[in-house]
Amino acid sequence: MSVIKPALSLNSSLGTSQYDSQDDTEPTKIKNYLKDRLKSRIFLGRYVERRLADKRIGYRDVVVVSPAEVELKKDLLEVQHKLLTICPNTHWIGITDTEAMGSTNGVCLWTEIDNQPFGPFWFQIKSLKFREDEVMVTLKCLRHISDAFLEVEPILTGAVKKCKTTELSDKKLENSVASLNETCTDIVDTLKGAISISNVKEFVTFLFAFIIAIFTGSTSFVNFLGNFILALIREMSILVKNSTPMFLGLLDFFSKIVGGFYILLAMLFRQSAPAPSNKRTLGVYERSRRNYEQYDDNQFD
């Protein structure tokens, strides 16, 4: 029994490892299949701009596939769908539609192109590059479209549709101008019907009545304002006349309080005077006698 248990555990570990290896190999097989399906495909496209794809991804060069490349567009959409199923955690897949560019029924490739001007090119797909947060279609610029080819290029890149859209926009503009002219004519007709002799007379009478009402109202308002100001001045003079004695008495009261406070401080901080001497004591009498004896009778002659 002890020999059988390790054998069972070994078989189970081998089975799980084989199952995990099969799970790992299936996505890699599909990725290799998708790479082989798109590799070395040559197509006509237009290098439009360099745009911020995402904050985590950064800036990528946008290439719009020509509408004439029907098979390639179909294959790119299928590859996009399979990548979404295989790599659900991938943040950005560099195959999108052209809604972000302002058009429909198109395919955009978000890639990296160095040192090439904007415009139409012959491109070749190198491979699919799988990164941590991104799946990118790497391209190679084979040839820039020359000026001689630009006559045929609108037909291949679908610029004829743009011409049709411009024609439709011109028609819409013409229709809007025509509707604006109709509204202007309607406004003029209504004004002509509104401006008549009777309406002008009524307007003039209303204007005169309005002016007279404003004049009479302003005169009455000025009269009322003058009477109010005179009454206010009279009442203010009476108030000042009656409040002046009270104000003076209040000032006298506060001055007496302040003067008494200063007298109190002077009495508190005054120096103490020596006690008066008693003239009836013996010492005082002898001093006065000596002074008297020093006098000479000739001083009185």
SSE arrangement:
Elements: H1 4-38, E1 42-54, E2 58-65, H2 70-86, E3 92-93, E4 95-97, E5 107-111, E6 119-130, E7 134-144, H3 153-157, H4 159-194, H5 197-268, H6 282-293
Parallel strand pairs: 3-7
Antiparallel strand pairs: 1-2, 1-6, 2-5, 4-5, 6-7
Helix pairs in contact: 1-2
Keywords: Membrane, Transmembrane, Transmembrane helix
Transmembrane segments: 206-233, 245-269
Helical residue percent?
Answer: 55-70%
Distance between the termini: 170 Å
The strand count comes to 7
Number of domains: 3
Shape: elongated
Average pLDDT number:
77
Question: How many strands, which pairing sense, and closed or not: the largest β-sheet?
Answer: 7 strands, mixed
Strand content: 15-25%
The number of helical elements comes to: 6
Outline the low-pLDDT stretches: 1-21
Which series of helices and strands comes N to C? Answer: HEEHEEEEEHHHH
In the sheet with the most strands, the strands line up as 3-7-6-1-2-5-4
- Overall structural class, as computed from helix and strand content, comes to alpha+beta
Q: What is the gyration radius calculated from CA atoms?
A: 57 Å
Keywords: Membrane, Transmembrane, Transmembrane helix
